[in-house]
TrEMBL record:
A Pfam family it matches: Acyl-CoA_dh_C
Family annotation (InterPro entries): Acyl-CoA_dh-like_C_dom (IPR025878)
Species this protein is from: Shewanella benthica KT99
Name used for this protein in its record: Acyl-CoA dehydrogenase family protein
Residue ranges of every copy of the Acetyl-CoA dehydrogenase-like C-terminal domain listed in the record: 3-49
Source domain of life: Bacteria
Amino acid sequence: MTALESGTEDKAFYERKLKTAQFYMSYWTVQTRSLRKQVESSSELMTQLEEADFDL
């Protein structure tokens, strides 16, 4: 049972916590998808490099 369900006296505090959590989850869900695409595309590029490509 959550604090809101049990009838907390600080209802506004818990409602703000829920709104903050919803914001971060929606933000990071989008960011995670974008970052995954970047990692996957970078991996493909990295496998195309030869060892000699790293010599300076």
